[in-house]
């Protein structure tokens, strides 16, 4: 079981990603409004590295979204990663976003709809 995190700077792609997540078998996700360190520092008039400043001003989006979901099936995880790759393209480009997964050992309060006693 893995948790998939997507830090989405291109927030206009949020709905398309969520709709495609459903199509590939992602059963639910949580979306949180967030702000990166570069945006927080530029809003406080604190000098930071020029590259971060350019990214923030070029995108003119100081806020982003974090999507996270817990996925049991490795094939669904790979499909979800493919959805993000398709919608966002090259994540290595500045200002696009970040995606990562982490192992999950235990989950409390989550009902698996496929499980029957």
From TrEMBL:
Domain of life: Bacteria
Transmembrane feature ranges: none
Molecular functions (GO terms): enzyme regulator activity
GO biological process assignments: regulation of nitrogen utilization
Gene3D superfamilies noted in UniProt: 3.30.70.120
SUPFAM superfamilies assigned to the protein according to its UniProt record, in alphabetical order: GlnB-like (SSF54913)
Protein name: Nitrogen regulatory protein P-II
